[in-house]
Amino acid sequence: MAIKDKIKAEIIEVRGEDVPYFVESLMKEGKEAIGITGEDLFKEFSLNNTNAQIRIAETIPWKDENFIFEKPSLCLLGPKDKNISDMPKKLRICINSKYKEIAKKKCLGILENKGYRIEKIYASGATEEFFSNKLVDLVIDIVCSGKSLEKYNLKIYDKIFESNIVIIKKKESQKQNKEDTEKKFDASKVDFDKLGLIPTIIKDKKGNILTLAYSNKESLTKTLETRQGWYFSRSRNKLWLKGETSGNYQEVLDIKTDCDKDALLFTVKQKGNACHLDRYSCFNEKKKFDLEALYEKIKEKIKDEDNNSYTKKLVSDPELLKRKLIEEAAEVITAKDKGNLIGECSDLIYFLLVIMAKNNVTIEDIEKENLRRDTK
Predict the structure, then answer these.
(1) Inter-residue contact 93 to 137 (CB < 8 Å)
(2) Residue 117 reports pLDDT greater than 90
(3) What share of the chain is helix, strand, coil (3-state, %, to 5)?
(4) 92, 23: one domain
(5) By C-alpha distance, which of 230, 276, 227 is closest to 251?
(6) Domain boundary among 107, 128, 162
(7) How many domains does the chain contain in total?
(8) Is 181 helix (H, G, I), strand (E, B) or coil?
């Protein structure tokens, strides 16, 4: 990992799983830092630290022809002479302790949903030895060249996560976020003296109404400082941070007051669901479909480790993507009726969004370009 301040740049070598913690800790000390580690290790860190202020700045493809999958891959391993369908419903699985959360999210939960009861055993290394000594039925660990598979008579039952190399750095400056928000909204506009508590409507940036909460001076101040949704609970008589217990945080993008200055409107980026009944909206409104939602879903598919994904196949094969774009454009032109045209336009938009996501062109970029043209 590299650390840079006004005086010098310094390189510190630490274990890959420790790099995210070092970068985060150095940031808290006011230092600038970037880290280089494995995508698998950063994924595990992210699952354990949902409020972490670091992100992936760049992904570098890991390609080693000596590896089974050309890169380190977290896999579910089992006896060479059996398949998962041959295994008992009660399974003992030895898991490399570096991957507790990835294993839980990407594999164990799926097995449990299929009716398997799992006894988890965590080991810091030599997971295959547990299998060799008949202490477990299956193993979850990183596979590279596959030599240990041959040694312990194991085979791959499922690939859980492929790892590239990632460069990590801090997220957008909290200070800058605060300054940007404060430039857009003047808290003195709100008439707290009139009511004490101000009704606050929360919506997402596509206009979906999420919930109604209440703000006071202190909660609004904390919202402006952190850009997270802070509110005042009338039932508990104290401030509360949305997502503090559920993990469904709200990034506040914009704040407005009404004409009487006694109500607020927050526009937020909602993580997960806003309602405590596990619905997206407290008013049970269905989340509206929009192109940005499709774009975000395509980005998730590109990052996902599922190699059966058609989206991922398109991204990895530029010539195929180009051919599909040309093919779908031709089918739009030759559509015979409105119904056929709707379907062909939908297909074309999908492929267009894939090439945009592949090249980091966002919906916002397109909106800005169209606004520029409209202004001209």
Answers:
(1) yes
(2) yes
(3) 40, 25, 35
(4) no
(5) 227
(6) 162
(7) 4
(8) helix
Question: Between β-strands 138-143 and 230-233, what pairing exists: parallel, antiparallel or unpaired?
Answer: unpaired
Question: Between β-strands 117-123 and 90-96, what pairing exists: parallel, antiparallel or unpaired?
Answer: parallel
Instruction: Give the CATH number, domain containing residue 316.
Output: 1.10.287.1080
Tokens read off for 117: 């009861």
Residues 199-236 have pLDDT tens digits of: 999 999 888 899 999 999 999 988 988 889 999 999 98
**Quick one: pLDDT at residue 7?**
47
Chain segment 226-271, per-residue pLDDT in tens? 889 999 999 989 999 998 888 888 999 999 998 888 899 999 988 8
User: Which of 291, 273, 293 shows the shortest CA–CA distance to 283?
Assistant: 273
- For residue 183, the enclosing domain spans 174-270
Residue 171 has pLDDT above 90, yes or no: no
Looking from the CA of 7 toward its CB, the CA atoms found within 13 Å total 2
241 domain-assigned: yes
Q: How far apart are CA 196 and CA 193, in angstroms?
A: 6
**275 belongs to a structural domain:** no
Within a domain: 278: no
Task: Supply the CATH number for residue 85's domain.
Answer: 3.40.190.10
Domain CATH number, residue 245: 3.10.20.810
Structure tokens, 373: 């043209």
* Residues composing the chain: 376
* pLDDT exceeds cutoff 50 at 110: yes
The answer to whether 328 touches 347, Cβ cutoff 8 Å, is yes
Helices vs strands, H then E, count in the chain: 14, 16
pLDDT, residue 1, reads 47
Greater model confidence, 188 or 258: 258
Domain end among 129, 162, 195: 162
